Amino acid sequence: MPQLEGQPLKGRVALITGASRGIGRGIAEALAAAGADVVVNYRSHADEAAQVAANVEAHGGRALVFQADVADRAAQARMFAAAIEQFGRLDIAVANAAFSIREPVVEAKWENVLRTLEVTQFGVFHTCQFAAQQMVKQTPQGTRSAGKIIVISSIHQELGFPNSAAYNMAKAAVNHLVRTMAGELAPYRINVNVINPGWIDTPGERVSRRRSTWRVMPPIM
After folding, report:
1. Domain with 94 in it
2. 216 falls in which pLDDT band (50, 70, 90)?
3. 197 in the Ramachandran plot: left (φ > 0), alpha (ψ -120 to 50) or beta?
4. Residue 23: closest CA among 177, 205, 145, 156
5. Residue 132 pLDDT > 70, yes or no?
6. Residue 217 lies in a domain
7. E strands, the chain, where?
């Protein structure tokens, strides 16, 4: 596989949640192409996670595949511990994993609302907190920061799309979390940023489209 010239992330360690497919997979493989070692988190797509790890290694990096439901705080704690045991540090954390079942508010089943919040909001908090706790222990190397935390949010954080109340409010919450953490972690030279994608053609989105009764936005070009 082709590698980026100079591999600017050589020697850096990145952890990406929900990295077996979709946006998370794309991020994991892009960071590997830039030279990073990668922790590939997945919940239920083991074969695809293994393929992502193989692609990381094809770029010359090291990969750690770790199964963990991001809604399970204890499982995330074990994942971060395993990452530090294997690689010794963490430079980049991408909180990407999300979940949504689209239902109108008046018909929404509480178990679906709760599951959406547990993954999309609380899971992001767990990832960000564990990453921050590790990064504040690390000494910045040269002119680089002590670490970078990136949250993959959504335009749902701003636009109240119908049939997505739980997902909408979870994404709005994580955006505010990013604003809070950016200020708190700046003294440690830790960058915290959020990305709000529009509609992306991923396997998870295709499932949501089949379940949904409302018209999905066209892809943003």
Report:
1. 13-211
2. very low
3. beta
4. 205
5. yes
6. no
7. 13-16, 37-42, 63-67, 92-95, 147-152, 190-195
Residue 158: per-residue pLDDT: 66
42 catalytic per annotation: no
Of 68, 119, 167, 168, which residue is the catalytic one? 167
Tokens at 65, concatenated: 């595949």
Number of domains in the chain: 1
CATH code where residue 164 lies: 3.40.50.720
Residue whose entry in the numeric block shows the structure tokens 């293994």: 50
Residue 124's nearest CA partner among 159, 102, 93 is: 93
Secondary structure (DSSP) of 32-54:
HHTT-EEEEEESS-HHHHHHHHH
Opening angle at CA 62, ends 8 and 16, nearest 5: 75
Q: Label residue 143 by pLDDT band (50, 70, 90).
A: low
pLDDT at 198: 60
Residue 44 is assigned to a structural domain of this protein:
yes
Residue 220 lies in a domain: no
Residue 5 resides in a domain: no
Interval 156-178: pLDDT, tens: 766 666 688 999 999 999 999 99
The residue that leads in pLDDT, 43 or 163, is 43
- What is the reported pTM? 0.87
Q: Which tokens in the block code for residue 139?
A: 């000494």
